[in-house]
Amino acid sequence: MADALQTARAYLERVGLGERVSHYPRQLSGGEQQRVALARAFACRPAILFADEPTGNLDTGTGKKINDLLFELNAEEGTTLILVTHEKTLAERCNRRLELQAGRQLESLSGISA
């Protein structure tokens, strides 16, 4: 239990929310809640992390910060990130991309075959 608490605190520090550890979700902004979600996701050290529109409900500036943090933590942890997004600029940051329309792959991108 102490190890889990230490890990949680370390990730909250990493996402810039160490001082907010005793706050309830309703006391956090949307961007802060999203950073907590990233901390929670990476704290369990998953081999694969699925992120579906991770910044869909955030303003542009906060969304950019969250995206940067997502890719930074991803690189540091060596996690396989599977990202679903409608944002072309965000998709372009990924090493491999698949474009789907109506459930079908449109074309092969970044060396992935259909």
What does this protein look like?
- The structure is a single chain.
- This protein has 114 residues and is an alpha+beta fold.
- The chain has a single domain (2-108), classed as 3-Layer(aba) Sandwich (Rossmann fold).
- Helix content is 43%, strand content 17%.
- It contains four helices and four strands.
- Helix 1 packs across helix 2 (30-43) and helix 2 (30-43) packs parallel to helix 3 (60-77).
Report the biggest beta sheet as strand number plus sense, adding barrel if it closes: 2 strands, parallel
Helix % is 40-55%
CATH architecture: 3-Layer(aba) Sandwich
Order of helices and strands: HHEHEHEE
Give me the count of strands.
4
Query: Class in CATH?
Result: Alpha Beta
Cα separation of the termini: 45 Å
Number of domains: 1
Give Rg in angstroms.
Answer: 16 Å
The fold-level CATH name is Rossmann fold
For the record, what is the CATH homologous superfamily label? Answer: P-loop containing nucleotide triphosphate hydrolases
> How much beta, percentage-wise?
15-25%
Low-confidence stretches: none
Task: Provide the spatial order of strands within the biggest beta sheet.
Answer: 1-2
Round the mean pLDDT to the nearest integer and report it. Answer: 87
Structural class category: alpha+beta
Number of helices: 4
Global geometry: globular
